[in-house]
Amino acid sequence: MAELYVDGSYTGYSSLERMPVINPADGSEVDSVPLAGSTEVDQAVRSAHEAFPAWRDTPASRRGALLGEAAEAVMGAVDELASLLTAEQGKPLREARLEIRRFVHTLEHYVGLAKNIRGGYVPDLDEKTYGLIVRRPLGVIGAIVPWNFPTTLLGNKLGPALITGNTVVAKPAETTPLTTLRIAEIMHEAGIPAGVFNVVTGTGEEAGQALAEHPLVRKVAFTGSTPVGKKLMALASNDLKRVTLELGGSDPMIVCDDANLDRAASAASVGRFFNCGQACLAVKRVYVFESVADEFIEKLVGKAKRLRLGPGTKDGVMIGPLHTSRGRELVEEQVASAVDSGAKVLVGAKRPEGDGFERGNFYEPTLLLEPARDSRVATEEVFGPALPVWRVADMEEALELANGSIYGLGSSIWTRDLNRASEAAERIEAGYTWINSPQIVYDELPFGGWKQSGYGKEHGIEALDYYTETKSVVVRRSE
Length: 479
Description:
The protein is of the alpha/beta class and 479 residues long.
């Protein structure tokens, strides 16, 4: 049975209630984990707090070397970790391997930035006086990570936190803790000191809140839904903790009349149905110019129909189950509401039939044409394999509809016209815009949402700013 990982070892709590970890493909129990509360969170935070001075004072180049060795060790266990991730999360093994590699790539990116953590020098503030700008780590970081990409989103927080000299207590989603626990063990065995990276398991209401409220936690880095992000921001405000929030999204895609429709349709299919549509950053609304709408829709329908659905461990499967039965029910409710509003079902909109599907949370890839523009699929975040498509007259209408959302995470436009592309890039209210490109996030570029999609930045060298404090030092030379 899995346990908490604190101070470099698994820590058992025989008196704690345990929660089963369920395989979404067949409902079987993979393992169980303790439901930590404030006492257990306090132990993990204090372990991180005690480890902080030594890790802070470790030269940045040495921290980078240790993190690089840890990343290499994780990569060496990619098959083991991918199997564990598929069992607890449900995604196909191919996607699980990609996710582990992505985690490693992110750590390696920050290893490369280890020697670029620098402050500044300001000469001649006054006679014989100059200034220094010093950057120092914050202390203990609370990293709260969701279930849809448990390792990728952990890496977004762990990389910049550790390389800048902070220590971390991670709280994975209660339904996907196993891969994170194993990664912590591997990284410690590879040389990350005890207490620098700890993992507590439990619910958001108990363990997550205790972590966010703990007085020794200096920052909360969270990925999840917008409503929970707002609650965490309020909790963090009690002690004026730093926060980074990567929240919900409803990314628009605009397909113009001069677009490469084959590539656009492929990007829409991958961007919506990867990970069974369970991603904050994903194509969730498509606006296509009327003159090419029929052709584009035909191509998109063809791609959706060719997606093979099944358990993540089965060869050739491209879409696994939704993570929970409640998640599937919510998508079904949103799709039913769209149909009631006048949407035409182009493909899907039902549970698959046949052997192997009855015990899992499976739902067919779904395309909806012209639901009401105030329907739930237009105004809410759809966290599953359902994509609405609307015809638009021109760029002005497309941009108006694209921005008509409380969210502003990602966006994309497909056009050969440089003027159109530039206009869209400037006017779309989102933290990321792809032009003629699938929705791939690059570690080299800062990433973060606008409006109710988040606060702060992950990725890029800019992420280091959110894990350090700056202070000004005035130096007056002696007479």
